[in-house]
Each structure stands twice: as C-alpha cells, then as structure tokens.
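INFO batch 0412 | record 1 of 1 | parsing
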Amino acid sequence: MLKTFPKGGIHPPENKLTAEKGIKRMAVPKVVTVPIAQHIGIPAEIVVDKKDKVEIGQVIAKSGGFVSSNIHSPVAGTVTKIDQIIDTSGYKKQCIVIRTDAKNEANFVETEYPLLTEIKLESKEIVKKIADFGVVGLGGATFPSHVKLNVKEGVKLDYLIINGVECEPYLTADHRLMLEKTAEIIVGIKILMKALNIDKAIIGIENNKKNAINQFKELTKNEPGIQVAALQVKYPQGGEKQLVRAILGREVPKNGLPMDVGVVVNNVGTVFAVYEAIQHNKPLMERVVTVTGKKMENPSNFWVKIGTPIKDLIAEVGGIPEGTRKLVNGGPMMGKAIKNTDVPVTKGTSGILLIDENEASRGEAKNCIRCGECVFVCPMGLEPHLLMNLSEKGLYEKASNEDIMTCIECGSCSYVCPSHRPLLDYIRFGKSIVKKLETSKN
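INFO prediction complete | emitting tokens
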C-alpha cells in the first residue's frame, strides 16, 4: 500500500499538462531585474553601484545575516538602476536592474557540465560553499539552505528526506528535473548526506510520476543508503510535516521543525542546485519554471535566468490566451495572483499559471452551513471556519490561541467549502496581523 499522511488532504485535478515537455532553455533577456530579498530572512545587502560592470555569477548583494542569502548576477552586463520595483509579491522591493552585455557570448552559450561524482569537500566546507553560492530552498519557501545544514550541537539526525512530491496541480518543473538530471540529483543527495553526517536518505515521489520513481530506483539500486518511497497522490503531501509523517510516521511538533524528529527535508530542485554549487562552482542564478494553462498554445518547462521578466516566458509559449482571467505565480492552490507581467522570475518562482474565466471565477460567498468539510480536510488539524471568523472580527489574540500560525496556507479549506467562503484569504490576513503583534512583543 502506498504511503501518505493520515490527517486531511484533498485530490484536486492534477492538470499536469507539461509532464511530457522536456526543459527548454530561455533566451537570455536584454534586461534582468534581480530582487535582493529572494529568500526567507534578512534581505541581502547591495554591493554594486549604478553603472558598475558585472560578470555572470558575481555577487551583487551579500547575505545580510545568518538567515539570509547571497544574490549573484545571472548575466554579464551593466547595472542601470537600483530601485524599488514591484516583484511577484505585488509589493515594491529593492532590486538591481542589469542591462545584458550582448557582446558577451557566455550569456548565450550554456555550458554542458560533465557528471562529477567524487565529493572532495568536507562537511563544513560544503555548508560554507552552499552559503557562498546563494542556494535556497526551491520548493517554495526559499529558506537559506546553509541554515538547515548548520545543525546545533546535541541534535541527532538520522534521515535526509528528498521532496520530489510536487503535489501542486499544473506544476511539473520538479518532475522534469528528476527525469533529466537524475544522476546529478543523486550526487547532490550524497553531498547533503556528507554535510549532515547522515547515512540514510529517502526520496519521496508521488505515484503519478512512475517514470521518475523507476528511474531513481534503477540508479540507486547499488546505493544502500538511498531509498525511493512511492507515495499516494494527495495534496498537500509536499508540506514538510506531511511528508515526514507519510514516509517515516514521525509527527513533527506543532510549532517545530523536521529536525526536532531527526530529519532534514530538501526539495529536488534544491538538491540539484547544491550539486551545481559544490561540483561545478555555479551559484544559484537560474531555475526551472513551468509556464502553463489549459488554453495556452504551447505550455512548457524552461531553464530561466533569475530576473527574467515573466512576460518573456509568456511570449515564449504563445502569449496570453483570450479569456484569461488570472495570472498566478506558482500553482492554483498556494500560488498568488500577479497583475503585472513585468515582474521578474525569482529563486522561488516554480511556475507561471494562466487561468481562464471559468476556472478563476469564485462562487458568491454565503453563510457557513457548519458542514465541517474545512475541518475534515485540514492537514494541520485546525478549524479553518473558526480562524476565518476570528480574523474577520479582529480577534487576533484568540486566533493566535487557536493556532492560526500553524496553518500552512495550503488552501484545502477554501477548495472544499460549499459556501465559497474566502477562508484562506482571511486566515492569511489574520496570520500577518498575529505575526506583527508577536514581533512587537519581543
């Protein structure tokens, strides 16, 4: 029987339209806009000035603290502007704008790196290099990867879990990466195992990606420390706590981390970025992005330079289809709508989704009928209807007491609500206020 997490979850239509589409390389844009806050934590500190010439991979903003990350130039060119510019969050953020040097051929010819399997660095050297090369979690949270690898003294770890679930509908960036860079990901897993001094790793992949499961099983059959776990298809299995529970049966504490139960979790995209940083000295300055939608002419997966305008990706797949109602950064469940196609791709951009009028329309919100569906599907065991009511009425202390901050914002509650109540919208708002209140107390 396939493993899964026991509490809550839903089965939205998968719509994996690009699962058979190999990853293509986007042309280098004429201008890139690189935000300095592409990670959870303190924004990086800008170390270049307007009119400076920069090279590919050059540090243009240095980590602002322990929970922060370096930012590297994805192109060779000239800094034309340092300004507050709207990014995928919808808010203005400090960005570095670089005009690409068209004469620099290195921008247009991507090196095919050979597979390097020998890991020469020691544990501490690996962690430092991952920090230096700006690697962050590419599964959505963008948590600086070196922080996860700095294990406190006394903490005992025994498992590394690799997240190849990609349970969000429409997105296939991780799936394609697993198929096309299997061997490199396995080396990346070994690098992380060495960094953490762990001898056991499990790759979790949902059963709708049988080709990826079979490929990893074939390439790890002589790797006794690395296993592959085929998982039942269920959303939001890609959540760290849900994944740890599904694979190992361990319950991560309510306000805790996987590390509290002896586990570190990394996304497959992150693992590949670790491989490139350690084995090829390549900073994180590009990623795979799925560009998709039911009415799109040619939905595809792309290697994209960080800072590339989203409008370039949309143009590459045939433009915005007639009747498009919403443009989403990410998938339909946890992604956020964006209004401006000039916003840049960041380290956390896993997909761009164009939704038509029928799929994007919300039913008219009605009174709660106390059906309990939202409670039944919540993977965190919360009462979403209650959290919405408390947030709506401004009862933020009560919302905090009802564990609003443990909500992972998966959107399962809104998805199943027969009254079309905007549960997640209010819970997100309530969380933002509770967080501000908690910060002001400290």
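INFO post-check: Residues 127-280 form a domain with the Rossmann fold fold (CATH 3.40.50.11540).
INFO record closed
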